[in-house]
Design brief:
The protein is 41% helix and 16% strand. By secondary structure, the chain is α+β, with helices and mostly antiparallel strands. The strands form three sheets. It has a five-stranded antiparallel beta sheet with strand order 1-2-3-5-4, sandwiched between helices.
Length: 304
């Protein structure tokens, strides 16, 4: 693979900070719980002479048969880049550079995002939320599609069905959703979501942020999924998710031009929660849960 990298980069010297610089390579594996060992990604970072920070990241898998994760990641990154092209958010993601898919070898090349891992410090959280909402607001100006109450209910029912629970458990989830307060006049723009908006995937660089890891881009087009996911994965005590949602969701929905009453938030959050379970349903911790257990788990998360 290194020989292919050298060839491709030799043909594209403009990708480098110092064209013609001698290159060195650092390889690392990144096993993820979503994949088996063979399907885990392998990263190769490309360093230019005298540089402490890599210029380019190459992504591949251990076997060619597992290469769909690389193709998907690259396609998602292209979609993100297209959505922010020419805007102040153009540097919020890596730049897709190249996809190689032949001779039983698949790998992608993208620029490396600078920054340090996001922490839950008050200043960092405020910056991350501000930049994220700005990006979503930018996307909202270019879309006229909206989710109405019927669309969201349909999504809830489809997600419940996809979970593959027993009839009684599926009915418990459906009934719980029906009894949540919901405004029939809800209107939400259809916006691409990062899909894995967590502490591990946000880098802070001065007064800017970078989002990395694009495997799950578009996992949900229902606005608010990313913020719910961030708050869910950052949960340190009961009540924190509710506190963060009440603090940031009104600002978020207002900036993207949504029409939704605060009393409808729990119905949206419940759909997000079901979608997150759907995404992780292949993991043992998310399997064989009854409808009652799922509802109780959600209630404890959003408790005040």
């Amino acid at each position: 693979m290194i020989s292919w990298l050298k060839q491709v980069m030799g043909e594209n010297p403009n990708w480098l900070r110092k064209p013609g610089s001698s290159l060195s390579f650092m390889k690392m594996s990144t096993p993820e719980p979503e994949y088996g060992a063979e399907e885990s990604k392998v990263l190769v970072f490309v360093f230019e002479e005298g540089e402490r920070r890599p210029t380019i990241c190459a992504k591949t898998t251990r076997t060619y048969s597992a290469g769909e994760v690389i193709r998907n990641n690259y396609s998602n990154l292209q979609s993100l880049a297209e959505g922010v092209r020419g805007s102040v958010y153009a540097d919020m993601f890596a730049k897709p550079l190249y996809l190689h898919d032949k001779d039983n070898l698949v790998f992608s090349l993208e620029s490396v995002c600078p920054g340090v891992k996001f922490s839950l410090l008050e200043r960092d959280t405020a910056l991350v939320i501000e930049k994220y909402i700005g990006w979503q607001s930018h996307l909202a100006t270019s879309t006229e599609k909206t989710w109405g109450s019927g669309d969201i209910t349909d999504l809830a029912n489809k997600t419940i069905k996809t979970l593959g629970l027993s009839g009684d458990s599926a009915l418990v989830l459906s009934n719980y959703y029906k009894h949540l307060a919901f405004d029939s006049n809800v209107k939400l723009p259809v916006l691409v979501q990062h899909g894995d908006f967590t502490l591990d995937n946000v880098l802070i660089y001065g007064e800017q942020i970078n989002l990395i890891d694009y495997d799950h881009v578009g996992i949900s087009k229902l606005p608010g999924f990313d913020l719910f996911n961030l708050f869910l994965k950052s949960e340190g005590r009961i009540g924190l998710l509710r506190t963060n949602c009440e603090r940031y969701l009104p600002q978020y929905f207002g900036k993207i031009g949504a029409r939704i009453a605060p009393e409808s938030y729990d119905s949206i959050l419940f759909v997000h929660y079901l979608q997150e379970r759907q995404r992780k349903m292949h993991l043992e911790a998310y399997q064989e849960k009854s409808g009652e257990e799922i509802v109780n788990s959600f209630r404890s998360l959003v408790a005040k």
